[in-house]
Amino acid sequence: MEGLNLMANAGAGVYRGYSPGNSTRTGRKLPVMLQFHGGGWVSGSNDSVANDIFCRRIAKLCDVVVLAVGYRLAPENRYPAAFEDGLKVLNWLGKQANLAECSKSMGSGRGALGGVTEFKKTDSHRHIVDSFGASMVEPWLAAHGDPTRCVLLGASCGANIADYVARKAVEAGKLLDPVKVVARVLMYPFFIGSVPTRSEIKLANSYFYDKAMCILAWKLFLPEEEYSLDHPAANPLIPDRGPPLKLMPPTLTVVAEHDWMRDRAIAYSEELRKVNVDAPVLEYKDAVHEFATLDILLKTPQAQACAEDIAIWVKKYISLRGHEFSY
């Protein structure tokens, strides 16, 4: 699986899609992973070079279709814009399930660049509100994606979006059929709270993203009248934050030793385990926030190992019966 195949479609949607290149040749349907990039609510992009490299890596290792979601950024678009955009994509994915018959009308406009297929929808204004409406169809995704095996993966603030989308999916229940969120991966989630954890005190001045910078990001993201470090978007441990944790999908949490946000992420996974949700934590030594997705760290052995570890865990929940992943 060397190199890439490119598929680009004109249209108004906001996503970049990736799939292992052999899926189009075998005709098999692959699980669908929605991927949410990081950037502290105010920066980052689903079509950045770093996000592109990461999504290609994950699509190949996990053997899934990856949809890298573009969401609106703060401060121009404050909470709940980014969260709503993530949920809109999940609902839009459900609309694609009935479009397989459209795939026959699809042309073969792919370039021969080998291994991973890329397909794109772009919108210079980033307005997913219009982009993921009922009128937009993607025959390629309908033909090759299996929405009954949907995984949510987010990095940093993208993990907060993945957490929100998962909670809304649980609340929606059968209304989302045939889409089923079978697992989620929270990579160094952008959690915080008014009562500091040990790591928030000890590592407040940690590399790349210190606590003061992140508090500023929350001030730019949350509406002024809603600003609180215990906002449900910020603190996963506040009381009465629905739905009940026992209903949440299996959740893999990735944390870094030198990330001040690590303890709250670990505490959230502990609460999930208390109610019998499969919620392991992978902690990487000598690592910093975004160590597996930041452009200058993507080619490190640790970043590669993290992607491989994610793939091992995810495949437990996306493998078809009789074709289980073994290791």
Automatic annotation (TrEMBL):
Domain annotation Alpha/beta hydrolase fold-3: ranges: 33-292
InterPro entries in the cross-refs: AB_hydrolase_3 (IPR013094), AB_hydrolase_fold (IPR029058), Carboxylest/Gibb_receptor (IPR050466)
Signal sequence residues: none
Superkingdom to which the source organism belongs: Eukaryota
Residues forming coiled coils: none
GO molecular function per UniProt: hydrolase activity
One Pfam family it belongs to: Abhydrolase_3
UniProt similarity note: Belongs to the 'GDXG' lipolytic enzyme family.
Protein name: Alpha/beta hydrolase fold-3 domain-containing protein
